[in-house]
Write a structure and sequence with these properties.
By secondary structure, this protein is mostly helical. 49% of the residues lie in helices and 9% in strands. 26% of the residues are buried. InterPro entries: HAD-like_sf, HAD-SF_hydro_IA, HAD_sf, S-2-haloacid_dehalogenase.
């Protein structure tokens, strides 16, 4: 819901100051998406980060908690949504749609800072011990919304993690991108959030009657 470039600009000082940690953390987050089963995601990622950095797992977990989970949200404060996000959410809410947020990182601070409210649920995939595109996070959101996966229209900007992950559990998908992927499996692709509602209608998706976003 916000430009990733804007987030990178705001966080670059913190990332540069802790370059080894963020480099290891990013690689580990890619690695854990392919690991199954996982009983404790935070413990696993601390072990893997520790191995990459050559430090103790307890030290790695303390660093991740202090820098990635505590300081990074502060560095991102002031990030603004894409134009049209608030209007699209308002229209969906007025239509009676249930709104939910799923993020691979805890979303509460970012939503609060962007002034986005009124969600039936706002959760991190970490709550399931699996990251997208694993099925557990998407099914968890559907459960919290009290709907079937096929009643959900999932909006995301990452084709592999968001669109393919949500589609694999039966959700409808809307890909926020400049252009559609070749042979895209998304039900619709849109460039600007002020064109999301027209794109939903053009795709023949009825909200909220029979579908929930």
């Amino acid at each position: 819901m916000y430009p990733t470039r804007q987030a990178a600009v705001r966080s670059w000082r913190l990332v540069l100051r802790h370059a080894r940690l963020f480099r290891a953390f990013r690689r580990v987050r890619i690695q854990v998406r392919a690991i199954r089963p996982i009983s404790d995601l935070h413990a696993l990622q601390a072990d893997l980060v520790a191995d990459r950095m050559g430090i103790d797992p307890a030290e790695a977990r303390a660093l991740i908690d202090a820098v990635v989970y505590a300081r990074l949200p502060d560095a991102l404060r002031g990030v603004r949504t894409h134009p049209g996000v608030q209007r699209a959410l308002t229209e969906l809410r007025e239509r009676g749609a249930k709104l939910g947020v799923l993020s691979d990182m805890p979303p509460d601070a970012k939503l609060r800072d962007m002034g986005l409210r009124g969600f039936a649920c706002a959760v991190t995939s970490e709550a399931t011990d699996y990251l997208k595109p694993n099925p557990e996070p998407f099914r968890y959101v559907a459960e919290l919304l009290d709907v079937r996966p096929e009643q959900v229209l999932y909006v995301g900007n990452h084709y592999r993690y968001d669109i393919l992950g949500a589609g694999a559990v039966g959700m409808l998908t809307a890909h926020h991108a400049r252009r559609a992927e070749q042979s895209s499996r998304a039900d619709l692709t849109f460039l600007r959030y002020d064109s999301l509602m027209p794109a939903i209608r053009a795709a023949g998706i009825r909200l909220p009657s029979g579908r929930v976003s």
